[in-house]
Design brief:
Length: about 290
Amino acid sequence: MKISWDDMQTVLAMVRGGSLAAAGVELGLSYTSVARRIHRAEQALGRPLFERRPEGYQATEEAHDIARAAARMEAEEQAVLRRLSGRAQDLQGPLSLTAPPLLIQSFLAPLLAEFTAQNPQVELTVRAANGVLDLARREADLALRISRHPQDTLVGRKLAEQQSGFFAVPEIADRAALDPRAPLDWVLYSGHDAPPAAARKSHPDIRVRARLDDMPSMIAAALAGMGALRMPVFLAHSHPGLVPLPHLPLQPYAPIWLLSHRDLQGSAKLAALKGVLEPWFRDNKHMFSSLP
């Protein structure tokens, strides 16, 4: 009875994802390749690892046993790779950064161009994501995160405090300031139930005209005159068509952090990228806490 590490990883991905497709995404394989690996593992062990049901694959207890062992092995593998990478002093090879798309679009692209020009042998991968990637599993080496409570398993520094404000096209902003009791149209993030309490307190007759699921879409709707919105003040610096509602104060917003796994603190590549990012944020903190 013997099972390869590749097949153990596949069983782990199946247990994590719950489907051939999800496991394929995690492993970078087609779902048919995942199915072949699962079949190969079952043949090697002489027993089924997943029950094939109409609603999908159901992991057996044996599959869970293998997945737990594979997770421990994976953690050890990633730990030794992190330690080796953290000791590397050469400025070449792969390096990955994850950051929110809006930060990349607004500020980071020129900084990343500067870094790659200075370090042409570094193979930089940028993962534009608002979600939290797992730095322990090396889904990224360095993370820019907007968070009030970053993971305590990571190390790094706070780059900038942030504020948010209320913005609209000038006609809407002027009307709102002149007559707060008049109806005020609003563009709302679809994950929120209602406009912010600070806006509702001053404008009891807020009408939600549209709910959108990302900030670029909300900004586009606001620029089209659909209503006011709340957004981080750094976005106001790159969208002059939106002006603040002058009678509404700025609101605290989650700060920006630069984080990595502690095992990578000695990496020369990480230090080089931090050496480009940190000074820029230090010199431009006002863009995240003050209006244009």
